[in-house]
Amino acid sequence: MRHLFKKTLLPILFSGLAVIPSQAQQPLLGFGANAAQKELDLEATFDKQLQANNLRDWMKRMTAFPHQLGSAYGLNNALFLRDKLASWGFEARLDTVHVLFPTPKVRILELTEPTKFKASLMEKPLKEDATSAQTKDVLPPYHAFSANGDVTAELVFVNYGVPDDYEELAKLGVDVKGKIVIAKYGGSWRGIKPKVAYEHGAIGCIIYSDPKEDGYFQGDVYPKGAFKNESGVQRGSVVDLPLAPGDPLTNGFVADATHTRLSVAEAPAMMKIPVLPISYGDALPLLRALGGQVAPATWRGALPITYHVGPGPAKVHLKLEFNFDIVPCYNVIATLKGSEFPDQWVIRGNHHDAWVFGAADPVSGAVAELEEARALGELIKTGWKPKRTIVYCFWDGEEPGLLGSTEWVEKYQSILKDKAVVYLNSDGNGRGYLSAGGSHTLEKFLNQVGRDVTDPEKGTSVIERLRSRMILNGSPTARQEARTRADLRISALGSGSDYTPFIQHLGIASLNVGYGGEDAGGDYHSIFDSYDHYTRFKDGDFAYGVTLAKTLGRSVLRFANADVLPFDFTNFANTVQQYASEVKKELENARTKAEDHNKMLAESRFEAAADPKDPFVKPVALSVAPYLNFAPLDNALVALENSAKAFALASSKFSALPADKLKELNEILYKTERKLIHADGLPRRPWYRHQIYAPGFYTGYGVKTLPMIREAIEQKNWKEAEEGILRVSGVLEGFVGEVERATSIK
Ligand SMILES: [Zn+2]
User: Fold this and answer.
1) CA 735, CA 713: separation in Å to the nearest integer?
2) From ligand 1's centre to the CA of 398, what distance in Å?
3) Residue 12 pLDDT more than 80?
């Protein structure tokens, strides 16, 4: 889980904004005074329903056996969820799609030179962990969507295996062409590592968990402590997620009579080389056998060896074969029909599939969601009805690549474009601080929700607890901002959970919420992500599970009941201004760097080396970034800020509008986010259509904001950067037009 508020922030531009009222004085967004009191009373009743024991019982039940996509117990859990939801008054069903799910058939990794060693590739059961000795249906450690392969080659240690590491290797004169690389987990999403290795000519990739980031260097290992022991392995997907999530054989559509699947060989998002995750127990003999130069200081981990880069003399044999099966993927979809606006859908989701037992990921979030649904059922019994339709979703196939949610969104895209008001996501949940990311049109809303939820340990609101931490630990700017800005910033969403298809593909405003920061451990995607581990080291009393249910249940209630949908545009305008300053700064930095380099070059006297293999070849001059015309973007940002302010000023009168006008207003409001997508998508990855947020092409889960402009600058593609400025300006102008249309309704 990422800590979403930790990021260093640039100074914000309060240019001309009126004095910001403090949180406590703000009326409830979207409700008039009377309606607000009614809503708060309803939320108090909702809170009283929530019982930690339900979360515990359901977690125990759902994690009793492996329940990955395509497993018998996965279906069993789906039916359990469906029947529970139906018993509480939801119209509940399984919505099944069929997707590609590769599982391992052959896994061999051995050191063949200079000594022999065969990797165990297994996690050792522990008597302290009740489910760890199960073998039936347990998927051994592997990477889903790895290529088949049978390769033998010298080994090279590539640190995290991100692009910068290969620049460092080039300086050391080390080439990975025709080699097998071994990379540490960390520094990027895992799928980036084999992708970058392949781009550099490697023929195989091994990823291991170094104890420095994930093991005894962090704390006592399981079962004594929470951290990764020497046999623990992180499974995971290596599908090319920044290209597109979902079934890689059907990107952008669902297989049916008119749309046929690609073959595995044709699928662009499939990994092109074999890749395998291993434990640090299995990695140690491989790394110990490496020679060559000593690894740079920052690359060294916590194993009891001197880290060398290679290549060789260590030589490894890696053989992987997979079953490429099409399996049923059981999404559970449950609906409470809205009494006034049945065609406006408030959608809530969390996945139910795991890699193995998945107590933290995803069951901790799923049981909180389930308890929310039960509490809504209790409210229904008292005669309450939501104005808008509420849809509770439990996704299957998230772990291999957001398969269930993506296929569902693609299947119903025309309906969702029209009806989806908001998507509220959670995934694994732990203890500690609120963390939230999402559409910045929902930032004020989320802050209000957090203001009204009490932290179970500290007794203050979860927002105030977070604010205190930022003042204590934040960077100077974040600290300053936490003191003075009415709302805490939420992070931008990249990818990595089921919100992705909603926000990135269709432009449905989304939030992703969880608690964490006091629940560190090494269980992620291993067999030790179990009920025993979770209850000992994470949220053992489920207090923060209940807090998550209060946070997202309250969000669902507010969206379902609001007179005026609780969107705000001032924080969004402020955030996009910040992103624009960042990309300008990035361009400026690129220019200064190239100019300094070229100046240094002109002043020194390099001779071209006679031998082309000589690493001391004459450096080449760098192309200096041109001055790009940001005027269209600057103009769009001014218009955005003005429209946001005008809307905020007009908003007090909205709740008095007649019903038909309110309906019209709300339809404009929830569709504003649609204006931030562009039909052509991003360059070279048309599935990603959002022009403000996208996962980075080379960061994976990590977000790139204003992605077309920012990534073009990073790649020194000045023409595309210029096109990006025009594209984003156009999109923002369309957005402003809608905000103005909403403001003028009377
Ligand atoms: Zn998850």
Assistant:
1) 24
2) 7
3) no
